[in-house]
Amino acid sequence: MSVIQAYVRTTAPRGRDTERVGPFLATFARDTGHPMLNYAIPDDDAVPSAAEIVRLTAAYRRRGLLPRLEFFTEAAPDLEERLIDQGYAVERRIPLMTCTPADFVDRPAPAGIGLRAPSNESEARGLRAAQNVAFGESPDVSDAELAGTLAHGERAVLVEDTVTGEIVGGGVALEIENGTAEIAGIGVAATHRHRGIASAITAHLTRLGHDRGAHTVFLTPGDEGIATVYRRVGYQRAGECVHFCLG
Fold it and tell me: In CATH, what class is 113-238?
């Protein structure tokens, strides 16, 4: 578990400002206050003092941000109780799932659906817009979101309805660090769900990670229901990710 926590500690700060507060690495997005892009990551086996948690809270408050943490419970098993003592509450608990090359099960795209990397800025914008809508957000794509999608290059995949040419979903594979990689942002438009497309995206990105040298690819599904999709590709539950916040 510490390997995956170290992966997040390495990759999450990229493109963000950071501040070290006791046993926490606090990260701050430069262009958005979105809670999912502003959170702290604890050191392994973190046992912070009350004063250190107060300082962490203040680091977010003075930036006008919601104080939040995201971490794998097994990597810091004594942290939850200390956060709760300081008024933090569990936002959600989600599974951590991993897939090795030996576990991988390929899932091809259904008829009429194509998976490929975006070939230009317009397609990259369409990919991000489709992801936003799939997650219940605005289809508008900020310059920062577009830049992030373009930065993924061939590690991004868009889902194209080959009949209409419409971009109806996508996902990304993140960087490989020490043989570990994360896939994220897997979303499909409501009009195209329940056809096996999400499984096909997951398989495509997982295979990409394995082919590029990752011995472990992981993801954190939003809930147990969507975890069923990932199990079809060979993902197995390996732990739990917990999100804490202080309202």
Answer: alpha beta
